[in-house]
Amino acid sequence: MTPRERLKAKIAALQAKTEANGCTEAEAMAAAGLAARLMAEHAFDQAEIEITEATAPNKWQRSAWRDRLSAGIAVATNCDWIVRPNSADVLFMGREPGPDIAAYLRDICFRAVDRAVREFKETPFYRRRRKLATRRAAVADFVEGMVNRLIMRMFELFKPLISKPAREEAKQALARRFAGDLVTRPIKAHDPRFSQAAGAGWRAGADVGLHHGVGASAGPKLIGSGK
Fold first, then answer.
1. Computed from CA positions of residues 95, 99, 105, 106, in that sequence, does the dihedral angle turn out positive or negative?
2. Can you tell me the distance from the alpha carbon of 176 to that of 157, in angstroms, rounded to the nearest whole number?
3. pLDDT category, 92, cuts 50, 70, 90?
4. Which of 15, 17, 142, 199 has the fewest CB atoms within 10 Å of its CB?
5. Short-list 132, 106, 123, 131, CA closest to 197
């Protein structure tokens, strides 16, 4: 089995770690650390690197926070991303194994936010909000805080691997792939109303089990860097 085939086998095993397949959410989230290790351990020569793509079926309604989290994950994994024209699916493109890992992380992070929102709605702070508008505002602030923390932690986890040249290469590849069909949709800034809700979201983002995993190197090599 070649190094690339071994890598693909490891990614397939990683993608199988889902709640639907009997994994706990904690086990699925811990796999994010393993994803960083995969990217670090497979430092291919520049000539061996291929631009690949991975599609994530969009099971969720599109929203600003989901777009922002997808964008953050794309940066962390040296990818660019797009919601497919005439489709709700999200496509990540970049140097392997980035796209497959990005699609996986997007799925488990979305599930973690959904779970945390359900828990937030059981808190006294949320229940004291009597109007539907204020409850929605509280949830939006909670999600904003959580997404901010998740993106920050994702950048910290993948920091040794983030490469501007790889990211630029991904952008150019995506532009060629969808020539004439790319439409930029700016992500709206969020103006928080309830700092307590945002703080609760920030703490929830810290509780998500993202880590390097057992035996991870503190200073992994950049894919294709030769360093």
1. positive
2. 30
3. very high
4. 199
5. 123
Cα distances (angstroms) measured from residue 26 to each of 102, 112, 144, 163, 207? 18, 9, 21, 28, 10
Burial label, 82 (beta-carbon count in 10 A; 0-12, 13-18, 19+): buried
Q: How far apart are CA 110 and CA 209, in angstroms?
A: 14
Confidence of residue 84 (pLDDT cuts 50, 70, 90): confident
pLDDT digits (tens, 9 = 90+) for 167-194: 999 999 998 888 766 555 666 677 788 9
Residues 6+ apart with CB under 8 A from 209: 26, 29, 30, 32
Q: Where are the domains of the chain?
A: 3-111+143-192
- Measured from the Cβ of residue 24, the count of other Cβ atoms closer than 10 Å reads 11
What is the model's pTM? 0.78
Question: Structure tokens of 60?
Answer: 């969720």
